[in-house]
């Protein structure tokens, strides 16, 4: 039943991404709210459902977006995988892990997008894509990372309350 | 009495009345001070309450002003769209609001709040009162996704009004649109108007797209290129018109596979 919280959270993040975030440009790039939400959720110690969230968010973004569902689905799963690796290795500095995952996750989704678009016959200049889309996206995702991490930490504590210590 | 009438008491009377007046002034001032002490707090409280009420009313009125300004803006847009549809009666239009953009920055799509329930079909052109913005790329019951002409995968067959030639308009990741496949021997100038040609059956002819802003012609290239300034501001799309009586022609089966 706890996994059901993913439905409203992911829906809200995708709606906000499409209606608000994607209109806030820096150069030609913008933030990826579902990616940051997933990264923050997967970093919480109590959470054991991040893979379900990644699949759901990937399919939903793939449905809304014109890009193939392969990009968000595999991109977001890569973010969760990274989060689980970082959680074990840098568990004492969650914000450092959050920034690292956001940085790497944005690059992974961008590279996947370029590859999939190339296979679809759309050739994009890599330097333009990196300089005008990926770098501004990384910066905006970093700005979102701290508040989103705080919100998701509170949400995780609410969904997975820690047992009382006597 | 005789002394008083004679004016011998006037100085004593002045001293007496002066003392009385001073005494009354002293009492009056103290009374007013005491009265203020007891009544002022009540006045301040009532003033604060009144101030809060008025601030609440101001906030409500400001919200109403913002809402009315928004409605005026929407009405102006709708009036312009109605004028456009009256000026182009050969087409049937369905108005739709832009409710979102593509979540991926690599693509230039918008999402509109009209779908197959409203007669929207894949391939229908989408315009504003200013000109062409794109065409419907995917449809569900109550929404549709529109590929803008600025999308990197978009290609529109166009003609240059002054040069009487045809070319291909392509988008880019940055949202700039470029004319390609312009023959080298043609003389095109900044300011030339770019319209849809109707070739290929993807768009109806003579929809305005924009103006040429600069031309790049190099001797060793097969074709010239030109940058186009679209007439539509794609960052401020709110309400659009879908041309619902246009049936796009799919010519892909006629194109030989490489």
CATH topology of the largest domain in chain B: Thrombin, subunit H
Q: Report the count of strand segments of chain A.
A: 0
Mean pLDDT reading of chain B? 85
Oligomeric state, counting identical vs distinct chains: heterodimer
Count of the domains of chain B: 3
Low-confidence stretches of chain B: none
Q: Calculate the terminal CA-CA distance of chain A, rounded to whole Å.
A: 27 Å
CATH architecture annotation of chain A: Orthogonal Bundle
Residue share in helix of chain B: 25-40%
Kindly report the spatial arrangement of strands forming the biggest sheet of chain B: 1-2-5-4-3-12
How would you summarize this macromolecular structure in one to three sentences?
The complex is a heterodimer of chains A (166) and B (258). Chain A is mostly helical and 166 residues long.
Write the SSE topology.
The complex is a heterodimer of chains A (166) and B (258).
Chain A: H1 6-19, H2 33-42, H3 50-64, H4 70-89, H5 94-119, H6 126-159
Helix pairs in contact in A: 1-3, 2-3, 2-4, 2-5, 2-6, 3-4, 4-5, 5-6
Chain B: H1 2-5, H2 10-87, E1 93-101, E2 109-112, E3 125-127, E4 132-139, E5 144-148, E6 155-160, E7 165-170, E8 177-183, E9 193-196, E10 208-216, E11 223-230, E12 239-243
Antiparallel strand pairs in B: 1-2, 1-12, 2-5, 3-4, 3-12, 4-5, 6-7, 6-9, 7-8, 8-11, 9-10, 10-11
Please describe what this structure looks like:
Chain A is mostly helical and about 170 residues long. Chain A has helices at about 5-20, 35-40, 50-65, 70-90, 95-120, 125-160. Chain B has about 260 residues and is of the alpha+beta class. Chain B has 3 domains: about 10-85; about 95-150, Beta Barrel (Thrombin, subunit H), CATH 2.40.10.340; about 155-245, Rod shape-determining protein MreC, domain 2 (Thrombin, subunit H, Beta Barrel), CATH 2.40.10. Chain B contains 2 helices and 12 strands. In chain B, the strands form 2 sheets. Chain B has a 6-stranded antiparallel beta barrel. In chain B, strands 6-7-8-11-10-9 form a 6-stranded antiparallel β-barrel. In chain B, strand 7 and strand 8 form a beta hairpin. The longest helix of chain B is centred in the N-terminal third of the chain and has 78 residues, at about 10-85. Chain B is elongated, with a radius of gyration of 38 Å. Chain B starts with a helix and ends in a 15-residue tail after the last strand. The model of chain B has no long low-confidence stretch (mean pLDDT about 85). The chains are: A mainly alpha (about 170), B alpha+beta (about 260). The interface between A and B is medium-sized, with 34 and 23 residues.
């Amino acid at each position: 039943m706890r996994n059901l919280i993913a439905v409203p959270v992911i829906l809200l993040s995708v709606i906000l991404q499409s209606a608000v975030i994607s209109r806030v440009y820096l150069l030609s790039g913008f933030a990826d709210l579902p990616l940051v939400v997933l990264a923050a959720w997967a970093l919480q110690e109590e959470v054991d459902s991040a893979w379900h969230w990644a699949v759901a968010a990937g399919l939903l973004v793939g449905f809304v977006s014109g890009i193939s569902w392969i990009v968000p689905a595999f991109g977001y799963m890569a973010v969760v995988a990274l989060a689980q690796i970082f959680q074990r290795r840098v568990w004492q500095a969650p914000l450092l892990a959050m920034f690292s995952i956001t940085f790497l996750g944005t690059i992974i989704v961008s590279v996947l997008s370029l590859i999939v678009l190339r296979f679809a016959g759309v050739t994009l200049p890599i330097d333009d894509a990196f300089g005008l889309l990926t770098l501004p996206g990384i910066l905006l995702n970093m700005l979102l990372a701290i508040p989103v991490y705080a919100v998701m930490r509170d949400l995780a504590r609410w969904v997975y309350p820690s047992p009382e210590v006597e | 009495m005789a002394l008083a009438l004679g004016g011998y008491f006037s100085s004593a009377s002045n001293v007496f009345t002066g003392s009385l007046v001073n005494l009354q002034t002293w009492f009056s001032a103290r009374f007013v001070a005491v009265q203020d002490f007891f009544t002022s707090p009540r006045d301040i409280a009532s003033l604060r309450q009144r101030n809060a009420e008025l601030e609440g009313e101001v906030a409500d009125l400001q919200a109403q002003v913002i809402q009315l300004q928004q409605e005026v803006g929407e009405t102006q847009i709708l009036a312009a769209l109605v004028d456009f549809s009256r000026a182009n009666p050969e087409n049937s239009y369905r108005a739709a609001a832009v409710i979102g953009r593509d979540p991926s920055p690599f693509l230039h799509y918008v999402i509109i709040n009209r779908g197959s329930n409203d007669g929207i079909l894949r391939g229908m052109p989408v315009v504003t009162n200013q000109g062409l913005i794109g065409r419907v790329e995917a449809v569900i019951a109550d929404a549709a996704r529109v590929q803008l002409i600025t999308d990197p995968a978009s290609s529109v067959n166009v003609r240059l009004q002054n040069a009487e030639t045809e070319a291909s308009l392509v988008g880019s990741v940055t949202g700039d649109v470029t004319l390609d496949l312009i023959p080298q021997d043609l003389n095109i100038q900044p300011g030339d108007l770019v319209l849809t040609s109707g070739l290929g059956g993807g768009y109806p002819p003579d929809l305005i797209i924009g103006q040429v802003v600069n031309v790049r012609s190099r001797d060793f290239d097969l074709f010239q290129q030109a940058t186009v300034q679209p007439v539509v501001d794609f960052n401020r799309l709110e309400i659009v018109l879908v041309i619902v009586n246009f049936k796009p022609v799919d010519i892909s089966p006629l194109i030989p596979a490489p």
